[in-house]
Amino acid sequence: MLAGMPDLLSWRSRFPVLARKTYLINNSLGAMPDSVPGALAEYTRLWAEEGVVAWDTWLPQVATVASILEDIIRAPRGSMTMCQNVTNALAEILSCLEYEPPRNRLIACAGEFPTVEYLLDGQRAYGAEVVRIGSDPLTFPAEQLIEAIDHRTLLVVVSHVLFRTAELVDVRPIVERAHEYGAMVVLDAYQSMGSVPFDVVELGVDFLVGGSVKWLCGGPGAGYLYVRPDLVDRLEPRMAGWFSHARPFGFEPPPIVYAPGIGRFTGGTPNMPAYYQAREGYRIIRDVGVEAIREKARHQTSLLIEGALARGFIVRTPLEFERRGNHVTVDLPHAEQVKDELIRRGFVVDYRPGAGIRIAPHFYNTDDECRAIIDEMSAICSELGIQV
């Protein structure tokens, strides 16, 4: 433990997988907290004992779980809601838009996660002009993106941290340029929520989307959506469900009367089991503190980078800490084969084509684990005759 750094390893016993594996893929699937089985048992007990009356307890959890996320990113209370995943959240946003020229442009960069690119591309059928900036998914084209934003731009979608390389994007100039021209910005915070501290109001983004699978240790099935409070009541999502209605239990015919505020983005029946399990990870991240998580990442990502460079590996992640998130992407010949062998030996990482092996320590990982995986990669290369 570094001087002045809190003992984050005291949380390690809360994550069962860490007793069995060297688990370093927290930017893909965070380790499960030991309280998740109890949370899911709470959900199923209510169903078993109360039947339909369980909804009286279940439904308030949507706002309760979202409020933990609001605490983490300093969002105003009632500005976030839960959904199933980023696909649903972004689709809700897109369903609010009208693609009337000249303001019909949707802008994103080549390094975005495929969900974003697929959804934006699908909007062409409704009159959108989709502009893809850059061609190299390993390099964020900041200047090109900013220059592309003009009076024709309706919406810009940008990742806070790129999933391949962990490049941390400076969002503020993009937001300033977009707002100067009357455009809106969606921030995909999947790789920064729970790993990089930020104030969503200070960033000034209009929307934020993300999920719970990664640094939040919340598992699959629980996404989230933030909408800027002064904007939300001006938006009418066409992808609306019965919980988007102001009186969902009134079972009224169309046209819909939208719920006030963020409720209009809730959509259909909430995915309650996922929210119960996600709540456990969110609570831990809030209690640990993202600032402490980020400071530990400064040290451990540096260990990984220094070790990888010393062994002749290629590092795809920015070397300056202020320009990177909390994982490190290391490339080498036959990287996918090396990844498979690492997993066989109990080192859990993943591989992304064209980028390399992603290594993502979290607050509960040790420095020795970070050193060990680089040593193991070097040993595998020697054993398999891989030249680096």
TrEMBL record:
<dbReference type="InterPro" id="IPR010111">
    <property type="entry name" value="Kynureninase"/>
</dbReference>
<dbReference type="GO" id="GO:0030429">
    <property type="term" value="F:kynureninase activity"/>
</dbReference>
<dbReference type="InterPro" id="IPR015421">
    <property type="entry name" value="PyrdxlP-dep_Trfase_major"/>
</dbReference>
<dbReference type="GO" id="GO:0005737">
    <property type="term" value="C:cytoplasm"/>
</dbReference>
<protein>
    <submittedName>
        <fullName>Kynureninase</fullName>
    </submittedName>
</protein>
<feature type="domain" description="Aminotransferase class V">
    <location>
        <begin position="118"/>
        <end position="345"/>
    </location>
</feature>
<dbReference type="Pfam" id="PF00266">
    <property type="entry name" value="Aminotran_5"/>
</dbReference>
<dbReference type="GO" id="GO:0009435">
    <property type="term" value="P:NAD+ biosynthetic process"/>
</dbReference>
<dbReference type="InterPro" id="IPR015424">
    <property type="entry name" value="PyrdxlP-dep_Trfase"/>
</dbReference>
<dbReference type="InterPro" id="IPR000192">
    <property type="entry name" value="Aminotrans_V_dom"/>
</dbReference>
<dbReference type="InterPro" id="IPR015422">
    <property type="entry name" value="PyrdxlP-dep_Trfase_small"/>
</dbReference>
<keyword id="KW-0378">Hydrolase</keyword>
<dbReference type="GO" id="GO:0019441">
    <property type="term" value="P:L-tryptophan catabolic process to kynurenine"/>
</dbReference>
<dbReference type="GO" id="GO:0030170">
    <property type="term" value="F:pyridoxal phosphate binding"/>
</dbReference>
<keyword id="KW-0663">Pyridoxal phosphate</keyword>
<dbReference type="GO" id="GO:0043420">
    <property type="term" value="P:anthranilate metabolic process"/>
</dbReference>
<keyword id="KW-0662">Pyridine nucleotide biosynthesis</keyword>
